[in-house]
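quick one
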Amino acid sequence: MSQLSTKHLLGIKDISSEDIQLIFETADNFKEVLNRPIKKVPSLRDITIANIFFENSTRTKLSFELAEKRLSADVVNFSSSNSSVKKGETLIDTVNNILSMKVDMVVMRHSSPGAPHFLSRNIKANIVNAGDGTHEHPTQALLDAFSIREKLGDVAGKKVAIIGDILHSRVALSNIFCLQKLGAEVMVCGPITLIPKHITSLGVKVEYDVQKALAWCDVANVLRIQLERQQIKYFPSLREYSLYYGVNKKMLDRLDKEIVIMHPGPINRGVELNSDVADSEHSIILNQVENGVAIRMAVLYLLAGAK
Ligand code: CP
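structure w/ phosphoric acid mono(formamide)ester:
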């Protein structure tokens, strides 16, 4: 198989483990390209891609743009904060206006869950979901699993604890789908108020004690507290959260094994993760960012082939 089973990448829930393996194998090749003195290939030189971001981003936006440029695509960037969205233009009108300028693919981040799915039903271009509200962040999960595979040789059979604000996290949901499809065991850990009630129906373990979660896992993926999505108080204070759920070096020193530490970024240092762990030899956080470019090159390249 050399083609994805889908025209869009809307979520990990919708793709197969074969799709994920194909993305990884393609990303392996692009990672090799990225380590060459000339980091560019002509693969998408006839393709125009619009990056449409209705929500803030550093890593995902830059990573997609770099991936597109490394593939020789023409790139246009749209940010809602300085656009006619502020004058009341709808999502469909905004995207159709961009597409009428002969754009082939749309990479979109939006605060509403399902926005890229809605778009895929209404426009012809390939859509890549770069994060839709609290729903999915498929390329983040792919680069996370790819980074585990790179560090530990395989994802199958590994135990991954996702620690933090699970309730508001699109990274958590996409990671659960991706890791399970690749044969890993997944645990979620956080305060009871930040764990969705029915999460066990996804086949994950639930742990409320972070030290026990660290003792169980091979990999801890630590997530940010998403204060911008919290309309009510889920815990008394950030200081208290950090005291009970912040991962620090003392906790890792208590373990009788080495574990891998991940974080999708942005990190709130001293809240969910201390610098003595984030910057330690246990951390593969910057490898995740590096791998994001190769993974996004692979996704764009394969979707362009699916046209
Ligand atoms: N990991 C992630 O999505 O980061 P950004 O919000 O900076 O894109």
